[in-house]
Amino acid sequence: MGVGGSQENIHKKPVVLIVGGGYAGVQCAKLLDKSDQFFVILIDRKSYFLHNVAALRATVEENYAQKIIIPYDRLLTNGCVIQAEVISILTDSIQVHGYHDPIHFNYLVIATGSSYAFPGKVAEVASSKAISLYNNLQKKIKEAQQILIIGGGPVGIELAGEIVTDFPGKDITIVHNQPTLLQPKQFQDKLYARLHENLSKLHITVILNDGIQIPTNEDNPNMNYIEGRKTYVTEKNQRSITADLTFVCVGARVNNKSISNGPLQSKINPHTGRLMVNNYLQVDGYEKIFAIGDISDKEAKFAYIAADQANYVAKLIVLIEKQKPYPKPYQIHTNSLILLTLGRNGGVGQLPTSSGTLIGNIAVKCLKSKDIFTSRYRAALNYQSESDTETKTGYSHKLDSIQSILSVTEKDARDLLAGLSTRELAAGQDFI
Fold first, then answer.
1. Residue 432 has pLDDT above 70, yes or no
2. Which of 183, 263, 396, 397 counts the highest number of beta carbons within 10 A?
């Protein structure tokens, strides 16, 4: 057996394979790993967790990217994280790029999430390159005087708020093709009015119910900003807008290509691209395959909902393994919650009460804007202080466990733990 390997999985605990290391995948992996009843393997293309809820702060604040790009190396105690690109998901195994054999599982949690062009999310596999992207964008924002943001959803709104807070003299315009910001009729009417009022106070121009033909970034399709002075004309009212930096804050994609390449393709909702699940978050027809977070065709897509789904599935897997009765079905969140930051000093929000209680700058600052939950997620991945650095040895101490539980050679185990090669991202390719 390998030098320095651990013997704790010599009896071959059931393998829980979790595909995708976003909010849902990380939470589910932590809980199942803590139970010490399973050998948990989390697989992600990247070497780090991206706290993308706070990603837009990294476009303006120096050294903030290092805080939200958190290595996976401390996440699991009993299991491990494998850096690899998942090519296809089968009903008993997965296939990853650069490895000859399938990786089998007893339980599978599909948490592949969604992709969104940089800076909302980032596709780089190495943390150093991802940090450099944010640092370079900071310089471009500083130099720009006129900034156009196409898309008035949460990403576009919060990006505008971050920029105007740190650079109040810049001319910022948001163009949104809906009659209100966000999506109409999802929240209280007063929230839309208050949001528009706050943006106006920040001297951000908002153009509603109009659009701009989406420009393409041919040089780098995985980035959603375009440099260079350009003049655009809105499609409906023919309004002219000049900008020297343009952000396209639309076009999130569901990461389902690895599913489309296998037998679960028939379980994808053709209208949403997401996996259809039952009231226990199981992929229909498969007791031990689950889908949570953005890939699941169940309720709204927010980080806190992804975490709740992860909590439920983790508990259910324990019960199934112990052959105990199922719990009550998963309860969908019926009341909407949203906290929109407008920089670090405040924002607007709606709490998930039956009446949809609205909150303003002070409450939003306390709940989200000041830290954007960054400290919480660093702690969740066992990075307690900003000075903590990545463990170079990673999960190498799990060598014997991987060999035993996956029935592979020592060389294969070393290759898996060292991280496998990934392909260059093509336009529109999943980030997982």
1. no
2. 396
Is residue 340 within 8 A of residue 154, CB to CB? The reply is yes
Beta bridge partners of 242: 231
Q: Kindly give the interhelix angle for 154-166 and 189-201, rounded to the nearest 10 degrees.
A: 30
pLDDT, position 281: 98
Cα distance between residue 107 and residue 75, in whole Å: 19
Report the chain's mean pLDDT, rounded to a whole number. 91
Strand ranges across the sheet with 103-104: 86-89, 93-96, 103-104
The pLDDT of residue 223 is: 67
pLDDT tens-place string over residues 143-164: 999 999 999 999 999 999 999 9
Calpha distance 193→157 (Å, rounded): 14
Tell me: the pLDDT tens digits for 187-227? Answer: 999 999 999 999 999 999 999 999 998 876 666 665 678 99
Cα–Cα distances (Å) from 414 to 84, 366, 375, 409, in that order, read 13, 45, 32, 9
Domains, the chain, ordered by start: 15-45+84-116+253-333+392-418 (3.50.50.60)
- Rounded Cα gap, residues 240 and 235, in angstroms: 10
pTM higher than 0.90 for the full model?
yes
Per-position b or e across 79-104, b if 16+ CB within 10 A of its CB: bbbbbbbbbbbbeeebbbeebeeebe
Given the DSSP bridges, would you call strands 171-175 and 146-150 parallel, antiparallel or unpaired? parallel
Instruction: Compute the average pLDDT of residues 310-337.
Output: 96
Res 90 pLDDT > 50: yes
